[in-house]
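The passage that follows is intended for readers who have already worked through the single-chain material. We present the inputs for a multi-component assembly, then the predicted structure in tokenized form, and finally a short commentary. You are encouraged to pause after the input and sketch how you expect the pieces to fit together before reading on.
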Amino acid sequence: MDRLTASAAEAAGVPDLVRRVQAGDREAFVALTRLFQKKVFAVAYGFVRDKEDALDLVQETFLRLYQKVGTYRPGHPFEAWLLQIARNLCIDHYGRRTLKQREHDSGATVEELDLPDTSPGGGERSRDLKDVLTRCVDRLAERQRTIFIMRHYDQLTNEDIAAALGISLGTVKSLHFKAIRNLRALMAPYLGWET
Amino acid sequence: MNDCRKIQKRLAALAPGEADGGDDGALERHLGRCPECRRSRDEIRRIAEGAGRVREDLSAAMADIDWNAHAERIADAAFCGPRPLPARRPSAGRTLFVPRFRPAMAGLLAGIILGAGGAFLVLSRRPSVQVAGTKVVASRDFIDRVEYQMARRDTLDYLDKSQYLLLDFVQAAPGRARLLEQGPDAGPVRDMLSRKRLINGQLDSVRMSKAREICNQIEVLFLELSAVSGELSEAEAARIKDYIEQKQLLLKIELLKKELQDNEV
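Having made your guess, compare it with the prediction:
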């Protein structure tokens, strides 16, 4: 996954591309999309873990960007603004999906869903670590989930996450620690960890 | 235990894939002797491992996507829809709220709030009085000033008339003092007693205390002499004159009049 740092974005002429998009330049919009679509896809995939849903969210994010590009303030970090749009759409999508899932499951809790065997003696090897992790990530509070996804799935640094979410570095570290602590507690019953 | 909390925070803060502690000697030494923190490290390592598998899925999902075509499709969808909102120029109001002006704006806001609070406190201590039956509203100070001026003028008028009567009596030739005679000629005395009753209320204020004292002496004189029946004998007239001179009533009246006139607004 290629990562675009702020300096690289500057070198790519992002502010100029944004100005051209504001003026209605289609080619500039395509260039901007090519520049950031993989990063947006990574964020979206972390939330939905479905390729088609993630691609839909990427498209929705850039359509929303195009509609709102007139409100973009020059000098504000563009990438942070774009990821904020993506994150909001992902949260909306996640909320709708969770609601549908709850209706489908008739109120079943996560423990009652099709998680791997948790009976004594089942053993950790019989369980899909990735599946347990993703389901437990879904149960984290919104900001903890967002930071865990950006940190571990998208491999962003704490500084990048702080800039993207518009929060302090200390808050990112604190929320990440809480996410890890809660994940350990949530995953323990399924992986045979001591609590 | 405190060390363990710090170690577990450090373990959680390590970048994905580095949950083994790297080359941090202190961390390694603690993990070597603390089974609880080793267990934490193993669990965090498993979380990082699970996240790594999600990343593998992500890479696999991204591998077969035609990103150029996808960007073109998004652009087609965007440019066939409604035009974007026009670029917004930063307004003067928005410029004031940029981060570097926020301390000044906060100070200004605090000043406005404190000023408004101070004005409220000052004004709320000067209650207004609404005059019954009208819609005129005046402050208590204004009402006090008006009442004082009315009392001052009524008292001056009373003193003027008293002085005139007393002077007339004092300067009259022996046997011709008619001031306090009974009958129709005693009318001015009764009139003065009535006037005194009218201004009694006004004289009750602190600022009119000196005037009240002198006016009361005059009233006592008029009351005693109005009770005298028949014609005033020369001896009685002389006694009254002595009383007026002894009390220096005329001098006091003159001084009080001057003082009240000086206070005219």
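Commentary: Chain B has eleven helices and two strands. Residues 140-171 of chain B form the longest helix (32 residues). How closely did your sketch match?
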